[in-house]
Amino acid sequence: MLLLELCFIAVLFGSQAQTVPSVDYVPEIIPMKLAGRLTGTTFLLRQPLCYFSNQQGLNCSLSTCEIWLAVAREAAGVNNFDTDKVQPSFDIVSASPYPEAFQNKNYYVTRLGVQNNFLCAELPGIRYFRVGAEGNCSTPTCNGILPAGSTARVKYLLIDPENRRVSYETKWSFPITLISLMPSSSIDDWTWKRSGGMVVITVITSCLLAILLLLVAALLLGGSSVFSKKQDITTDLVPGSFSVRRYSTQHNVYSQASGISPHLI
Description:
This protein has helices at residues 2-17, 74-84, 190-227, and strands spanning 43-46, 66-73, 107-114, 128-131, 151-160, 165-169, 176-177, 233-235, 242-244, 246-247, 253-254. With 265 residues, the protein is α+β, with helices and mostly antiparallel strands. It is elongated. The model is unreliable at 1-17, 230-244 and 247-265 (pLDDT under 50).
């Protein structure tokens, strides 16, 4: 009986002592201010360039070793993944399929590509990976969206495709909190009503201003026709003489000739 208990303790201790070697990298959101960097259900990560370039003793090569991403929601998902990944003969790839992942173990894994695609070469442009890019997908390892407004942590994995176990991993990222979506019922529609009223007031004010400008223009034109009368000066046929027509307010015409200045009333 004592021997059986000792064997059980040894097996239990051995399973708990199993660990996955890690590299000294922490996944992080890209620092650039790009559109969609962080949304209610997705976010942009730096690609794992050069993360797994110096590992030794791998059973797979650069062209066959695969890089995956573990996406865990809050502490429960992190603990569940760390427990599942060290279980003997455990297929971590199919442990928590999407989309039921966040209803059960609160994590899922998705494939990025082979190791050869993420070497240390400097390439132009911004290299990122969008978590949740496949939306509401249905395949077990698809890159599906996260619950809106949730807090997630991620880590990159180097997986041997032969045994589908984690050979190396990065550290967990810091918590990433997604944007909380506001329900439509909580939106105050008084803002829209007030905006409509402002539009009506603006239109009425513009019309009144246009009418006022027309009235001012009409007054100016009418005043110029009454008060600005021309003086007609004509030269007589007789040399040295001229005649001047002058208009009074009674529209009477007075004229003088033979070089004499006109009489002004």
